């Protein structure tokens, strides 16, 4: 999953270079005091959240989620605030070795009440309260419950586009999700409550 993060950073760096070269790079390093705030709206067609859930290093599943909406305000790469919304109905299972019917079955299982109950909770809201020391100070609303998270990401801003990319883990244990609880009879069959993510969020200046 870390490869996705590296590729996302390199891809956006190329975009910055083609749009302005050294000038774009220098603009990204201007201090927040000298940079006006700007609003950015999410590009839902290119933004994606990759996920990986596992029982062990060898036994895991991967997939992706898209975004429903999002708007952030930023001063260069600082003072980032706003909110974006993950569309849980967009969930995909992308295991290469699985047949499509098996992917669909797993998707239905993850969407059921035992896991993320997407019929009732069809979105996850992420409120962003700032960016400091390489982390987004965020509050996630998952299954109707709030979780505070400092999410490690890299922020890139060329003035017309804002990109937020990063590889990180989130532990959902506190939510008491049935499907992620310890299987006392078969501990080896327990799905870990820690899920790995790769975020590639692209926003355009409004």
Top keywords for this entry?
206 residues; 3 helices
Record the SSE blueprint.
Blueprint: H1 2-20, H2 22-28, E1 38-42, E2 48-54, E3 60-75, E4 78-93, H3 100-111, E5 123-132, E6 135-142, E7 145-152, E8 154-157, E9 161-171, E10 194-205
What does it look like?
- The chain starts with a helix and ends with a strand.
- The model is unreliable at 14-21 and 23-31 (pLDDT under 50).
- It has a single domain (2-205), classed as Lipid/polyisoprenoid-binding, YceI-like (Lipocalin).
- With 206 residues, it is of the alpha+beta class.
- It is built from three helices and ten strands, in the order ααββββαββββββ.
- Indicate the proportion of strand residues: over 45%
CA-based gyration radius: 18 Å
Poorly predicted runs: 14-21, 23-31
CATH H-tier superfamily: Lipid/polyisoprenoid-binding, YceI-like
Distance between the termini: 31 Å
Q: Give the number of helices.
A: 3
CATH architecture identity: Beta Barrel
Number of domains: 1
Compact summary:
With 206 residues, the chain is of the alpha+beta class. Helix content is 18%, strand content 47%.
């Amino acid at each position: 999953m870390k490869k996705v993060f590296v590729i996302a950073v390199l891809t956006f760096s190329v975009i910055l270079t083609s749009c302005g070269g050294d000038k774009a790079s220098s603009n990204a390093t201007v201090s927040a005091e000298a940079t006006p705030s700007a609003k950015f709206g999410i590009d839902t067609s290119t933004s994606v959240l990759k996920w990986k859930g596992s029982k062990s290093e060898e036994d895991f599943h991967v997939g992706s989620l898209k975004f429903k909406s999002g708007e952030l305000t930023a001063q260069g790469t600082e003072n980032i605030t706003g909110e974006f919304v993950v569309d849980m109905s967009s969930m995909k299972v992308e295991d290469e070795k699985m047949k499509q019917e098996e992917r669909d079955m797993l998707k239905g299982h993850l969407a059921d009440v035992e896991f993320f109950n997407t019929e009732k909770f069809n979105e996850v809201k992420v409120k962003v309260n700032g960016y400091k020391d390489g982390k987004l100070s965020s509050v996630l609303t998952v299954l109707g419950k709030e979780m505070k998270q400092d999410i490690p990401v890299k922020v890139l801003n060329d003035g017309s586009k804002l990109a937020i990319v990063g590889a990180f883990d989130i532990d959902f244990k506190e939510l008491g999700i049935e499907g992620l609880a310890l299987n006392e009879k078969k501990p080896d069959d327990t799905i870990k409550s820690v899920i790995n993510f790769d975020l590639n969020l692209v926003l355009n200046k409004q």
